[in-house]
C-alpha cells in the first residue's frame, strides 16, 4: 500500500508538556485513515503536525515522498492540503455563500457556482443558509459549512478533526459515505479523528489508536474490532 503522508518519530510539545512521544504514523494514499483516542490522546496534535499548524519538537513529516517538516501551512495548502479543525473553522463575518465561493476562487468572497453546486448537492441543508453569516449559525451548521468548503477545494490530502461533531446522524452517514467514495473513486487521501470508530467508516483502510501520545494500535478496522472483542471477553477461573 502506497503511503501518501507520514509522521516519523514525531514529538509535539506544548511548553513543558509533550503531546506526542515520537510516534510513527503512516497514512495510505487514496484511502481513509481514522485516528482514534480519547481527549488528550494526541489525535489533534498529530493532525496539526501533518498540516503544519503545529511544529514538531523532533521527527519529521513526509508528504508525497518529500520531507515537508519545514514547509508552512500556506505552502502545504498550495500543494493540495485542506484542514478542518474541530473549532473556529469558519469566518464569522462571511456568509455561507461567501465561504463556498472562497473555496473555488481562493482570492476573495466572489461565489463560484460549480463549487457551490457541488457542496449543495452533498449538503442540501446549506441551501437555506446561503445568505446567513457563519457567526449566526449553530455549531453543527458551522461544522457543515467548514467541511463543505474544504471538500470544494478538491484537496489531495484532507484532514478532518472530529468532522461529525454537532451533525445529525443522517448527515454524518452521508458524509462518511462520501469520504469513502472520494478516496476510492478519486484517489484522495482522508485522515480524520474520532473518539470511537464510526459505524459508517468500517470500510476505512487503516485505524490508528492513540493513547497518551503513543500508538496503541495500527491496523484494519476488523482487526481492531477483533481485539476489542477479545478484551471484553470474560476469562473464567483457571483449572
Automatic annotation (TrEMBL):
Q: Does Transport appear among the keywords?
A: yes
- Provide the alphabetized UniProt keywords: Amino-acid transport, ATP-binding, Nucleotide-binding, Transport
Q: Name one GO molecular function term.
A: ATP binding
Q: Where is this region: Disordered?
A: 218-239
Annotated Gene3D superfamilies: P-loop containing nucleotide triphosphate hydrolases
Instruction: Point to the regions of Basic and acidic residues compositional bias.
Output: 230-239
Origin superkingdom: Bacteria
Q: Which SUPFAM superfamilies match?
A: P-loop containing nucleoside triphosphate hydrolases
| InterPro entries noted in UniProt | AAA+_ATPase (IPR003593), ABC_transporter-like_ATP-bd (IPR003439), ABC_transporter-like_CS (IPR017871), BCAA_Transport_ATP-bd_LivF (IPR052156), P-loop_NTPase (IPR027417)
ATP-binding keyword on record: yes
ABC transporter domain residues are 1-237
Renumbered to this chain, the signal peptide range is none
Entry similarity comment? Belongs to the ABC transporter superfamily.
Instruction: State the name under which the record lists this protein.
Output: ATP-binding cassette domain-containing protein
Question: From which organism does this entry originate?
Answer: Kitasatospora aburaviensis
Show the taxonomic lineage.
Bacteria, Bacillati, Actinomycetota, Actinomycetes, Kitasatosporales
Amino acid at each position: 500500500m502506497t503511503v501518501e503522508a507520514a509522521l516519523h518519530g514525531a514529538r509535539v510539545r506544548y511548553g513543558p508538556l509533550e503531546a506526542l512521544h515520537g510516534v510513527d504514523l503512516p497514512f495510505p494514499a487514496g484511502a481513509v485513515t481514522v485516528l482514534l483516542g480519547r481527549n488528550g490522546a494526541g489525535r489533534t496534535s498529530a493532525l496539526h503536525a501533518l498540516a503544519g499548524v503545529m511544529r514538531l519538537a523532533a521527527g519529521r513529516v513526509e508528504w508525497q515522498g518529500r520531507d515537508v517538516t519545514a514547509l508552512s501551512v500556506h505552502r502545504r495548502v498550495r500543494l493540495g492540503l485542506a484542514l478542518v479543525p474541530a473549532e473556529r473553522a469558519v469566518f464569522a463575518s462571511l456568509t455561507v455563500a461567501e465561504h463556498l465561493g472562497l473555496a473555488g476562487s481562493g482570492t476573495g468572497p466572489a461565489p463560484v457556482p460549480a463549487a457551490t453546486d457541488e457542496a449543495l448537492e452533498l449538503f442540501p441543508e446549506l441551501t437555506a443558509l446561503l445568505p446567513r453569516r457563519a457567526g449566526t449559525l449553530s455549531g453543527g451548521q458551522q461544522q457543515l459549512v467548514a467541511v463543505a468548503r474544504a471538500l470544494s477545494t478538491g484537496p489531495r490530502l484532507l484532514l478532518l478533526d472530529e468532522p461529525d461533531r454537532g451533525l445529525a446522524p443522517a448527515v454524518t452517514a452521508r458524509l462518511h459515505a462520501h469520504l469513502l467514495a472520494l478516496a476510492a473513486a478519486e484517489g484522495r487521501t482522508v485522515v480524520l479523528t474520532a473518539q470511537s470508530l464510526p459505524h459508517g467508516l468500517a470500510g476505512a483502510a487503516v485505524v490508528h489508536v492513540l493513547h497518551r501520545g503513543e500508538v496503541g494500535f495500527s491496523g484494519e478496522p476488523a482487526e481492531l474490532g477483533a481485539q476489542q472483542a477479545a478484551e471484553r471477553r470474560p476469562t473464567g477461573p483457571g483449572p
